[in-house]
Design a protein that fits this description.
Elements lengths: L1 H5 L7 H130 L9 E8 L5 E9 L4 E4 L2 E10 L8 E7 L12
Parallel strand pairs: 1-5
Antiparallel strand pairs: 1-2, 3-4, 4-5
Length: 221
């Protein structure tokens, strides 16, 4: 300032001061304009920042809500899968139990069928033995010499039917058609023949079940 004021210029003393003030004013105006631009930029950036923050908060709220909803759906799905697994385990256990029962039934059926075959085979063998015995008895009786007529043959054995055939010792004079009561059951003498036992010469009465309550020991008329 002093240099300008003390210089040997031809300008009037007030003109350098005015020029200096004008320059300073221009600089200040430029700085003010730059400051206003900076303030405007800051305000714009603040507005963008607020908008971005608001958008981010909305996204966070939406994301949180979506996550909560998906978490709830996932928990419900887990509960449903757990229930289905429990039902599946129960059904598998029931299937295993029913397979075990079926196996037991099959084993029992096989045992019953085997016993039925064994019984059928025993019946066939008994029938064959009875037929052979009847034929042998018939042949033996046909070869016996004729003798005086008697009221009946004295027998010492009885071939009694039932669940299992059995031989019992008796001492009765019977003939074909006679009735015998054994163990409270009336039987009919179908024939009289030799003992079915080997090397046994006793006479045997072969019986079948008769009518319960019929008097025992009677002969056919």
């Amino acid at each position: 300032m002093r240099k300008i004021l003390g210089s040997g210029s031809d300008l009037p003393p007030d003109e350098p001061l005015e020029e200096l003030l004008a320059e300073r004013r221009l600089e200040l105006e430029e700085q003010a304009a730059a400051l206003e631009d900076a303030i405007a930029d800051l305000e714009r950036r603040e507005s963008l920042l607020r908008d971005s923050r608001a958008s981010l908060e909305r996204l966070l709220r939406l994301g949180t809500s979506d996550l909560d909803s998906r978490e709830s759906e996932l928990a419900e799905l887990i509960r449903e899968l757990t229930a289905r697994e429990e039902r599946l385990r129960a059904e598998e256990a029931e299937l295993t139990r029913r397979r075990s029962e079926l196996g037991a039934v099959e084993l029992k059926r096989a045992g019953v069928e085997q016993r039925e075959r064994a019984v059928a085979e025993r019946e066939r063998v008994v029938e064959e033995r009875e037929q052979a015995l009847a034929e042998a008895t018939t042949a033996q009786e046909g070869n016996r010499p004729a003798g005086p007529s008697t009221a009946g043959d004295t027998v010492e054995l009885a071939f009694v039917p039932g669940e299992r055939y059995r031989l019992i010792e008796i001492d009765e004079a019977v003939e074909r058609g006679s009735l015998l009561e054994i163990a409270g059951v009336v039987h009919v003498v179908t024939r009289v023949g030799p003992s079915p036992l080997p090397q046994d010469d006793r006479r045997c009465a072969y019986l079948v079940r008769g009518v319960r309550g019929t008097p025992a020991g009677g002969g056919s008329s």
